[in-house]
Amino acid sequence: MKTFIIYALFIAAVLAAGILTGVSNLPGPWYDSLQKPFFQPPPWIFSPVWTVLYVMIAVAGARTWLRAPASGRMQVWFVQMVLNLLWSPAFFGMQSPGFGLTIIIPLLAFILAFIAMSRAKDPASVWLFAPYALWTAFASVLNASIFLLN
């Protein structure tokens, strides 16, 4: 029962934080007016992708918490989560692709660090974080492109 509660809490907390950050920092007219690269995905794709990714991030966090709540790996998980939640307010809220870029690059580094630290201890968490790493790498290129185009 304790394991189920930990998973449920992580999933609920991560989804709630992601949704709150997202709805508090909607793209809006400012973003619509920016020049965007040809590979910009359609707007409707972001919500379903992030919902799935947030569940996977939460499951990896819960797995780590259950195995080693005070570990360096858990600390890296929390840092990446904070950076993840800061990106939307920086990019959309402050209308600053440059500031967004200064957050998303370390975010990607912490995601990759979590993957590296999990490789030997929890291969399932590596697989849970792999799509997140790929999406964040793509988002980093997109963020940098918007910064350079504007």
Automatic annotation (TrEMBL):
Record CDD domains: TSPO_MBR
Protein's name in the database: Tryptophan-rich sensory protein
Membrane topology (UniProt): Multi-pass membrane protein
Localization terms from the record: Membrane
TM spans (from-to): 5-24, 44-62, 98-117, 129-149
Family: Belongs to the TspO/BZRP family.
GO annotation (BP), single: tetrapyrrole metabolic process
GO (cellular component) term, any one: membrane
Keyword field: Membrane, Transmembrane, Transmembrane helix
